[in-house]
Amino acid sequence: MAQLGQTFGASEMPQEERSYDPLPEGWYDVEIVGSELRTTKAGTGQYIAVRYDVAGPTHAGRVVFGNLTVSNPNPKAEEIGRQQMSALMRSIGIDVLQDTDQLIGGRLSIKLTIRRSEQYGDSNDVKAFKALSGSAAPAPQAAPAPQPAAAPQPAAGNAPPGAN
């Protein structure tokens, strides 16, 4: 047993007011605040786990999680994941994705549906992506192209004829 050194009264302590119920179906403006490459439980594929913080138009401050399949032994699952990744990238103006950190800070609208589950309880699924309403999609940001190596310059006094 360990003495706490003070007394805590449940009625005097703050109560958490957050809800973990799924958000109603519909479109939400969000900002991507986290993204991480993870391996599937089976160890046979990879996905990007994305954290979206809701900005509005309702439920500001709520958090939604979504996954984007990168690789999967099921070709259809991989195709769907890559289609979703393409839509997300276009929505936030990324032309080439090389690092999950490129997604962080992206602002877009996501469409949520509710997945019903007796075993795990209801949860949200991210089903679609689009640029924020009222603004054009950001211009795509391509990864910088590698610069070609400079051609070697002849040493002074060794210039080819006619180079003067």
Task: Give an account of the 3D structure.
By secondary structure, this protein is mainly beta. Helix content is 11%, strand content 31%. It has one helix spanning 75-92, and strands spanning 26-39, 46-56, 63-71, 107-115, 123-130. Strands 3-2-1-4-5 form a five-stranded antiparallel sheet, with helices on one face. The protein is globular and about 55 Å long.
Number of helices: 1
- What is the topology, as strand order, of the major beta sheet? 3-2-1-4-5
Amino- and carboxy-terminal Cα gap? 92 Å
Tell me about the largest β-sheet.
5 strands, antiparallel
Overall geometry comes to: globular
Helix percent reads: 10-25%
Q: Layout of helices and strands, plus pairs?
A:
Blueprint: E1 26-39, E2 46-56, E3 63-71, H1 75-92, E4 107-115, E5 123-130
Antiparallel strand pairs: 1-2, 1-4, 2-3, 4-5
Summarize the structure.
With 164 residues, this protein is mainly beta.
Please supply descriptive tags for the structure shown above.
single chain, mainly beta, 5-stranded antiparallel sheet, 11% helix, 31% strand, globular
